């Protein structure tokens, strides 16, 4: 079967084209979707890409979380469709209450861009099943509003229910509580993270590694994992 992955474009999306390329390199068919539509066009999975939707007014992702297509995204999430929110997409997922907590301005009040080490904390989701728990990966990071926050009660629930998908390793770049870089929902079909896996999918264009400059491709496994999850569920 040909897996079709929708990538939703919002006003201010910057990385939707990169996400569609990642989907294509993972062996799936990328489908461009528009924020003002109510039609998911029969896709098997969804990506909410990075950028600055609606200029990040109010709070990053807050207006986009109310876009017409988000009602379909919520329905799809409830039915188990794999959904990935990257950076601004992660912000949309928490604003839409598909993932717990919130994201605020970086602790140092500055935009940050770096190749970021992450530890995989949950390898049982639709988007992380090609990693192993405890594995360290490197994914590019670029954000100004990446500080993860939550109440003590929510943090305890996140930890107790194994909802942390990724933690920052080596350095916490934005002041996120408990070094949280990404989350999953209880079902494991919805994942959000601040770093950008779509920027680590092809040799020559990814993060530096010990093997060679710009050779890191850890991000590609997010997308191949989702394709495999869709194929497995359809079998």
From TrEMBL:
Catalytic activity: N(2)-formyl-N(1)-(5-phospho-beta-D-ribosyl)glycinamide + L-glutamine + ATP + H2O = 2-formamido-N(1)-(5-O-phospho-beta-D-ribosyl)acetamidine + L-glutamate + ADP + phosphate + H(+); L-glutamine + H2O = L-glutamate + NH4(+)
Primary location class: cytoplasm
Keywords: ATP-binding, Cytoplasm, Glutamine amidotransferase, Hydrolase, Ligase, Nucleotide-binding, Purine biosynthesis
Active site feature: 87 (nucleophile), 196, 198
The protein's Enzyme Commission number: 6.3.5.3, 3.5.1.2
Subcellular location(s) per record: Cytoplasm
Domain of life, source organism: Bacteria
One Pfam family cited in the UniProt record for this chain: GATase_5
Listed pathway(s): Purine metabolism; IMP biosynthesis via de novo pathway; 5-amino-1-(5-phospho-D-ribosyl)imidazole from N(2)-formyl-N(1)-(5-phospho-D-ribosyl)glycinamide: step 1/2
Record HAMAP family: PurQ (MF_00421)
Assembly and interaction partners: Part of the FGAM synthase complex composed of 1 PurL, 1 PurQ and 2 PurS subunits.
Protein role: Part of the phosphoribosylformylglycinamidine synthase complex involved in the purines biosynthetic pathway. Catalyzes the ATP-dependent conversion of formylglycinamide ribonucleotide (FGAR) and glutamine to yield formylglycinamidine ribonucleotide (FGAM) and glutamate. The FGAM synthase complex is composed of three subunits. PurQ produces an ammonia molecule by converting glutamine to glutamate. PurL transfers the ammonia molecule to FGAR to form FGAM in an ATP-dependent manner.
Record protein name field: Phosphoribosylformylglycinamidine synthase subunit PurQ
Organism listed in the record: Microbacterium aquilitoris
Gene: purQ
């Amino acid at each position: 079967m040909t897996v079709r992955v929708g990538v939703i474009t919002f006003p201010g999306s910057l990385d939707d084209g990169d996400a569609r390329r990642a989907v294509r390199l993972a062996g799936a068919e990328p489908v461009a979707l528009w924020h003002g539509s109510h039609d998911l066009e029969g896709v098997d999975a969804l990506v909410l890409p990075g950028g600055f939707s609606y200029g990040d007014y109010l709070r990053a992702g807050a207006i986009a979380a109310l876009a017409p297509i988000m009602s379909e995204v919520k329905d799809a999430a409830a039915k188990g469709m794999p959904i990935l929110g990257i950076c601004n997409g992660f912000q949309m997922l928490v604003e839409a209450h598909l993932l717990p907590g919130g994201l605020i301005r970086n602790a140092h009040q500055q935009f940050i861009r770096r190749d970021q080490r992450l530890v995989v904390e949950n390898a049982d989701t639709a988007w992380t099943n090609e990693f192993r728990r405890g594995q360290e990966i490197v994914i590019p990071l670029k954000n100004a509003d990446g500080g993860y926050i939550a109440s003590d009660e929510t943090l305890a629930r996140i930890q107790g229910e194994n909802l942390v998908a990724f933690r920052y390793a080596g350095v916490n770049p934005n002041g996120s509580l408990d070094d949280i870089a990404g989350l999953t929902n209880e079902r494991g079909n919805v994942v959000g993270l601040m770093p950008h896996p779509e920027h680590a999918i092809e040799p020559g264009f990814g993060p530096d590694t010990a093997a060679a400059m710009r050779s890191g491709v850890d991000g590609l496994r997010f997308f191949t994992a989702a394709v495999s999850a869709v194929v497995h569920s359809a079998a």
